[in-house]
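Ticket #4471: structure output looks truncated?

Reporter: J.K.
Steps to reproduce: submitted the chain below (136 residues) through the standard prediction queue, then opened the result file.
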Amino acid sequence: MFDFETFVLEGCRTAVLFRSQVFLVDFWKGGCKAPMGAKDFADTIEYINNYSTKFGIHKDHLCVGGAGAGAWVLLGALNELIKRNTVDIIEAAFFISPVVDDAIGKVQMKDLAFWEVKWAKYTTGFFKMMATDYDK
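Returned output as attached by the reporter:
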């Protein structure tokens, strides 16, 4: 449904809007298998942190994000950084429609925050495409 090029445009918009450096990494080329994508992402985060002055960024303002399966890779990377005791280099993490589970889609829409409704509909659509008995 999505491809890397879609997120390149969003990354550029984010960089301009927030006057920040944005690194877009495509971990799915070549069929990257778990847990290597998460470990590679953790390595990338640490590399950017270690060479932050070279990239013109502030070490204490690193934010990371992932969309769809990328959010799953991000979750693994954060877990890896916790194991390495370096997770404190991350100021914020954003999970955009993560393919973690279908829990948000099973919550009544009236009980969701306004910003969760879009993602509940979005993820529910994916799960309904994959399962013929989703509503049971």
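Triage note (M.O.): checked the attachment and the full token line is present. The first strand starts at residue 62 and ends at 67.
Status: closed, working as intended.
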